[in-house]
Amino acid sequence: MDLAFVSSPSRNTMKVLASVGALSQMLLTPGCRGHKLLLQLYFYTRSGLANSRRMASSSLDQKSRIFAVEPNIYSPNPFYFTCSRGPSAPFMTPKDWPMLDQGGLAFSVCIAKGARVKTASLHKSLGQELSQQLPDSEILRLISYSPENLPGSLEKGFFILPPHSCPDAQKRLCKVLMKYPQGIQLCSYSKGEEHEIWQCLWELNGGAKETARSRVLRVEEPVSSPFVDSIKGSAMFYSLEDACDVLEECSSVIPEAKEVLASVQPHRPLDEGRFPVIVIEGLDATGKSTLTESLRSHLNAALLKSPPDCISQWRTIFDSESALIKRAYYAIGNYIGAAEIAKASKTSPVIVDRFWHSTAAYTIATEMGGGIHNLPDHHHDVYQWPEDLLRPDLVILLTVSDEERIHRIRKRGLQETKEERELEANSMFRQRVEEAYKRMENPACLIIDASPPMAVVLQEALALIKKHCDI
């Protein structure tokens, strides 16, 4: 179908519209009963025009949307593009899109916006199946949105780069997508005869059928990153109510969600004590457990952790769910833990092994790919402590060099080669987590280099506690 036709009615189409309008007036004239066939023609024509208008609207929406691909080996920053049929637009070439420079195809898969729990679960299951069916392909996160209404139009999906040695990638991809309900959009991307890049929109209804074809136009990175804007409400929670809404929505299929929600009610409202609350944060193998135990002993303090014991038994279950559900579980864990902290602070100082900063830092680092330059800017509101969550008196962040971390992990007896591969693969991720920790505000993290012997680290921690807390 020519999308130009449905988006811009022709003179003949306008005549049809006028005729239908006149016909409707005649049929509605008192005393005119009309003929059955004439009535059928009227409603049939009106229905057809309505379908055309819907198709035109869908086509216009498709052409006005922007696609954003997470950083990858071809682009250290998110990659933005849109589609256009205008002859004067500066279309992209393989120089702008090196992933297609040697020929071949790329694909985008977008999941239509819907109920967020259902959509998040579909996104997770689809991503897993794509990885299984296209094991040699690079599968990147993608979002599609309308610049005029990012929150209301944002759709998540995947950008798929099959290897040149996989000529049947599109066939495999279509086979996967046909298993899923309507609301999944597939586009393919290829180089044209004049070295321009083309996007083809496909309809999946018992088979794959090309329905539209547009040239691809690169878009400059927007001032406000859609990846950052998509974090709130889909990855991070800044109120107990929002996190509970997610678990309530999925409680019919995850019985443990009801148990977690039941644990929330007895802990409200909070009544904080007079003793200080100190949170210890840091990556794995930075010495958190050793330091928290030492502080507990030296300060005669209560030692708590997140998620709290009353819901930690279901941690494995929620870790296997979509990111939305998993993060809602950890967010609620912080609020349940806050009630335990408030109660314990009435009788002694409280040491907390990880709290909200940990949840936030790992979430931000996971949602934002590439290097630390892709993280939200300093003082962005994603780094702000939730207003309805108990605020600690002090947050200490332990840091060590990568070399020291590797040394400590090896001492734990883990398989050396496996850990080396994971450390190498996750180098940028670790940097993003640590940098996100450092950008947290209200309260900010006070940093301690945990590379020296623990006795030295303990004395530095005690000095910070004495300086910032009434103890």
The portion of residues assigned to helices is 40-55%
Distance between the termini: 75 Å
Structural class: alpha/beta
Query: In one word, what is the shape?
Result: elongated
- Using DSSP, what is the number of strands? 13
Name of the CATH class of the largest domain: Alpha Beta
Uncertain segments are 1-61, 415-423
**Radius of gyration, Cα only, in angstroms?**
28 Å
How many domains? The number is 3
Q: Using the coordinates shown, work out and report the CATH topology of the largest domain.
A: Rossmann fold
DSSP strand content: 15-25%
Oligomeric state of shown chains: single chain
Mean of residue pLDDT values: 81
Q: Tell me about the largest β-sheet.
A: 8 strands, antiparallel, barrel
Written overview of the protein:
The chain is an alpha/beta fold and 471 residues long. It has three domains: 56 residues; 162 residues, no CATH class; 238 residues, Rossmann fold (3-Layer(aba) Sandwich), CATH 3.40.50.300. It is built from 18 helices and 13 strands. The strands form two sheets. An eight-stranded antiparallel barrel has the order 1-2-8-7-6-3-5-4. The protein has a five-stranded parallel sheet with strand order 10-11-9-12-13, sandwiched between helices. Helix 10 crosses helix 18. It is elongated and about 75 Å long. The termini are far apart. Its EC number is 2.7.4.14, 2.7.4.9. It comes from Eleutherodactylus coqui (Puerto Rican coqui). GO terms for molecular function: ATP binding; dTMP kinase activity; nucleoside diphosphate kinase activity.
